[in-house]
Amino acid sequence: MFNSHLSKFFQADIGIDLGTANCLVFVRNHGIVLNEPSVVAINAHTKEVLEVGTNAKMMIGRTPGNIRAVRPMRDGVIANFEITEEMLRHFINKARQAVPWRQRLLNPRVMIAVPSGITEVENRAVKDSAKRAGAGMVYIVEEPMAAAVGVGLPVDDAYGNMIVDIGGGTTEVAIISLDGIVSARSVRVGGDEFDNHIIAHMKKVYNLAIGERAAERIKIEIGSAFQVHDELEMDIKGRDLFSGLPKTVRISAYEIRNALQEPIASIVEAVLGTLDGAPPEVSADLIDRGIMLAGGGALIAGMDRLLMQETGLPVSVADDPLLAVAKGTGVMLHELDKLAGHE
C-alpha cells in the first residue's frame, strides 16, 4: 500500500471540464494540456472509434454513410455512455503523456466538473465512465464552483460572489459564499441551443439548410445579445430547400440577435431567479461585487450589457472565459486531499 506521499509521486492528478461542446483537461503542475471538441467519429458498422476531438469535429456534416460523427454529451450530461467512455479514455491517455513516466504507473486521480443541476443517476454515470476509462479515484465538483475558482473569485469569503457560466449545453448560475453555493440555477440552454435557433431561423426565413459548423460560425462572428454600434453582416452558404442546389445569402447581426432572443431570455430568467433566491445580506454584497461571466457564451457580443441592464448590477467578463472551469479544477486539485465525497 502506497502512503499518500508516494502515491502523489507515482500518480497524476487530472482535472476535466467535460463539456458538451469541448473537453478541456488540466494536469497538475502542467496546466491545461488539452482543449478539443467533444466529438467522436465511429464506424457505423463495426462501432470502431476512428477519430476523437478536433479531427472528429472536422467530419461533422461531411461523413460518408459508414462513418458517424457523434457528440456523446448533450445538455451537459452523458447521452451515449459507451462513446463518452471511449472519448474520456482517449483524453486521459493523451493527458498522461504530459507527465513524467513515473506518474503513469498508477491510474490518475481525476476531478470532473459537472452541471449543478444533474441528477444522482447522471452523476454516477460520469464517475463510472471515468473509472472504466482509466481513472483511479474520481472526484466530482459542480461547474459553477469550479468556474468561480477558475476566474479568481474569493469563494471562501463571507461575502456573496456571483458567477454565470454559459457553456455549450448548460448555463450555470450561482451565488457563492464561504465555499458553498447559496443560490443557484442550472438551465439546459447554452451555445448548442443558440446554434439550433440559428439553424431554424435560416430554414424559416431563407429556406436554407445549414449545418452545425455554419451556425456556430454565424454565432461567433455576428451573434449578439444587445445592440452593438456596428451591425455586422456576413455571407453564409447552404443548400436551398426548394431546389436542392447550393445557395449563398447575406444575413445581419440584427436578425441573428432576434433569432437568439428565446435562449438568451432563458439565461436572463435564470440569473434573475438566482438573485431572487438569495438572502438579503448576500444580495447586498453583489451591488459592489457584481456578476462575473464565464464560458463560451460570455463572448457573445453585448451579453454583459444585457445582464447589466436587466439586473442593475455591474457585470464583468472573465479574462479567459472558455478556460474558467478547467482552470478551477486545476486550482482545486491542489486541495484534493481535503475534499470529501471521493471514492
Biggest sheet strand line-up = 3-2-1-9-10
Query: Kindly state the mean pLDDT as a whole number?
Result: 89
Cα separation of the termini: 17 Å
Which ranges are low-confidence, i.e. pLDDT below 50, for 5 or more consecutive residues?
Answer: 339-343
- According to DSSP, the number of beta strands is 18
The helix tally amounts to 12
User: How would you describe the oligomerization state of the chains in this entry?
Assistant: single chain
The profile of the biggest β sheet is: 5 strands, mixed
Radius of gyration: 21 Å
- Label the structural class: alpha+beta
Task: Provide a descriptive summary of the structure in words.
- The protein is α+β, with helices and mostly antiparallel strands.
- The protein contains twelve helices and 18 strands.
- Helix 3 (81-96) crosses helix 4 (120-132), helix 5 (143-150) packs across helix 12 (324-333) and helix 6 (191-206) crosses helix 7.
- It is flat and about 60 Å long.
Brief sketch in words of this structure:
By secondary structure, the chain is an alpha+beta fold. The protein has helices at residues 4-10, 54-57, 81-96, 120-132, 143-150, 191-206, 212-222, 253-259, 261-276, 280-289, 303-311, 324-333; strands at 11-18, 22-27, 31-37, 40-43, 49-52, 67-70, 73-74, 77-78, 106-114, 138-142, 161-166, 171-177, 180-187, 208-209, 233-240, 246-252, 291-294, 315-317. The longest helix is centred in the first third of the chain and has 16 residues, at 81-96.
Distinctive features:
single chain, 343 residues, alpha+beta, 5-stranded mixed beta sheet, 12 helices, disordered C terminus
